[in-house]
Structure formats: C-alpha cells, structure tokens
Design brief:
This protein has helices spanning 26-29, 48-60, 71-80, 97-107, 124-132, 145-175, 187-204, 218-225, 227-242, 269-285, 314-324, 335-338, and strands spanning 40-44, 64-68, 85-88, 114-119, 137-140, 208-215, 251-254, 259-265, 288-290, 293-295, 299-306. The chain is of the alpha/beta class. It has 2 domains: 26-168, Rossmann fold (3-Layer(aba) Sandwich), CATH 3.40.50.2300; 176-343, Alpha-Beta Plaits (2-Layer Sandwich). Strands 2-1-3-4-5 form a 5-stranded parallel β-sheet, with helices on both faces. Strand 1 (40-44), helix 2 and strand 2 form a beta-alpha-beta unit. Helix 3 packs parallel to helix 4. It is elongated. The protein starts with 25 loop residues before the first helix and ends in a 13-residue tail after the last helix.
Length: 351
C-alpha cells in the first residue's frame, strides 16, 4: 500500500488544507472508535498554514483546539482558559518558543501543562536546549502524522492522570481529619455530629433540617479558571452561607469536591426553604471575586427535614439525609449510621 503519511510543514506555497486533497490511510487518520478524554491543545505558530493543518488534524482525534500566532497571545489565552497541552514552534517574532516554555513552566502552579516543541531545528543541541527550557517533548517538523498523534496521545494520558490526581487530592483534603480548605467543617465532623443532632431531634421531638448543596458546573469552573479559582469559589460559598444561618446553632460541612450540607437544628421545613432561597439569592446577586477574575455561580439545594408530626418514621428521614452525604461515592461509607438509631453516636441519652 502506498505510504500516505503526511508531514506537518511550514511550506507557505502548499495548498490549503482540504479533506479531499489529504488521503490518510486507516492507520494514520481514521477517527477514533471510542470517546477520548477531554483535552485542550493550544497550537502556537506564526505560520497560519501550520496552525490550520494542525487544528484540523487534532480535531479529528478529539482534541479541543485553541490557536495563537505568537507567544504573547498564547500566554494571554492560557491565563484566560487554561490548556492541557501546548504545541509550540521555536522561532517566532517577539518571544520565541523557548521563552514561552519557561513562562508556562514557571507560572503554571494549578495544573501541569504538557509542552511539546514542534520545530524545524533538528540537531542534538537544539533538542537538549528545548527540553532544558521546560519542554516535555520535542518533534522535528517533517515527522510522520502517526508519530505526532502517538506523542500527543501520551501527553493526553499524562495530563488526564494529573487532573485525576489533583481532583483526588482536593477530595482527600475534604475527607481529612482537619477542616476542609474551604473553611467549612469536613466529612468526619459531619459523620460525628449529624447523628448527634438527629438523635437529639428525635429524643426531644424538635424539628431538624438539612440543606444538601452542590455548586453548579464546578468542574467547568476548574477546567476554565483553574483549581485556585475553584478554591476561591468554595471559600466564597462558605462565607456567603455563613451569612444566611445562625452562628450559635447552625453549621455546615463540605462532603465532596463541590458539595456541602448545611445543618439547621430547631428548624422546620418551611424555615429551611426560606434559608435555601435566601442563599440562592445571595449567590446570584454578584459574582465571586477570584484570583482568575469574577465568576458567577449558582447552587442546587435539596431540603430534607424531620418534624415531630411527620408521618414517616424518623429513621427513614435520617437515612435519607446520611445517604445524601454519600453521593457520587465521594464520602466514607455511612451505612453503619443508617442501620439503627441505636448505632448513632449519642443516639440514646443525649443531653
């Protein structure tokens, strides 16, 4: 079979990219059969034709694409909407690819950005210089499409693992014995104190309500603005929530990456709905100030309440509330607390 591998070239006399003119064989440009993990690639090259060819090629392999004609433009794009991978030329006006690599490597603390140098410079010293500047990989223009895609798939896997580890780290911080980074109580505090509140409610026949809150599209906020901005959003949510509840009796705990439970002792269901509506309005009034700029947020809130005259058995409602903290398997196993009121810490004889 005729070898149909095409190289990425800076030849400005080449014809514009067109599906009918480029015939890749199945091993080179067949569309992936399965869904690939989301990965955003920034292509940085002062040659418009190179940007167009690479954009079309990478879109075929399920990469989200952004383009920049200069290193300065690339830095602006990265600051506004972080990328997983940067594919950059070496020789560009104003700021070259080496300087871009250094800027990205020194400035990117929230996530790991994979840097791939794609250039015509092909001697060994150039390769070592590029890697020393912070590039993770180095490809000489003229390499086969198969090699380019294979290296970018490696980059995708690396950035996907990095993102998963950072997400797990944030969730683990929520589950750790110390208070969560948001300033709220953590899951361990919830597991210890919510059953006590529920036991007290049942013992004395007093109402108790719990608001199950989830910040909408929080993963998209992190994807676009970075984890630091995400932490700012979490802290702002906690601060604004604190303004809606009583400091002497009410409290809130972070139960997942973007999930919280607000516990309202001595509060019937109508009062809980009023608190939920007040919180929604406060969050919608003005955007949250973050280190990445102002961000508007909204929250989904579920209300669960136990009242003395409720027709359902209180233990059923208690189980519902504890299971609400176990959404998405992001929290510890709470089944031991759901089995029987006698299993709750302080379920009998709470003062």
């Amino acid at each position: 079979m005729e070898d149909l591998e095409r190289s990425v070239s800076t030849n400005t006399s080449a014809a514009p990219l067109d599906h009918s003119e480029i015939a890749f064989d199945d091993t080179d440009l067949s569309k992936p059969a399965e869904e690939r993990p989301h990965c955003r690639v920034l292509i940085v090259d002062d040659d418009e034709l190179v940007r167009a060819r690479l954009s079309w090629l990478l879109k075929t392999f399920q990469f989200e694409i952004a383009v920049a004609a200069s290193a300065q433009e690339a830095l602006r794009i990265i600051s506004e909407n972080p990328c997983h991978i940067v594919v950059t030329d070496w020789q560009m006006p104003d700021m070259d690819g080496l300087s871009l690599c250094r800027h990205v490597r020194n400035g990117s603390k929230d996530r790991y950005v994979y840097l791939l140098m794609l250039t015509v410079r092909n001697n060994k010293e150039d390769i070592l210089t590029g890697l020393a500047a912070g590039a993770d990989d180095y490809i000489v223009k003229g390499a086969s499409v198969r090699e380019l895609i294979a290296r970018l798939e490696v980059a995708r896997r690396i950035t996907c693992v990095d993102s998963s580890l950072r997400t797990a780290d944030r969730e683990n911080r929520c589950l750790s014995p110390a208070d969560s980074p948001s300033g709220a109580h953590n899951l361990h505090y919830l597991v210890e104190h919510l059953p006590r509140e529920l036991g007290r409610s049942q013992r004395y026949g007093h109402p108790l309500a719990v608001l199950s809150c989830e910040i909408d599209e929080f993963n998209l906020i992190i994807e676009r603005f970075g984890p630091v901005a995400g932490d700012d959003v979490l802290r702002a949510f906690v601060a604004r929530s604190a303004g809606c509840i009583r400091s002497t009796s009410d409290w809130l705990a972070q139960t997942g990456e973007q999930e919280f439970m607000i516990v309202l002792p001595e509060t019937p269901v109508r009062g809980a709905h009023r608190v939920a509506e007040k919180l929604r309005q406060i969050l919608a009034t003005e955007p949250v100030a973050t280190r990445a700029g102002p961000i508007r947020i909204s929250v989904s809130i579920g209300v669960t309440a136990v009242e003395p005259n409720h027709e359902l058995d209180a233990s059923v409602r208690i189980g519902d509330m504890l299971r609400a903290a176990d959404r998405h398997n992001s929290t510890a196993n709470l089944s031991a607390f759901i089995k029987s009121p006698k299993a709750w810490p302080g379920g009998n004889g709470i003062n």
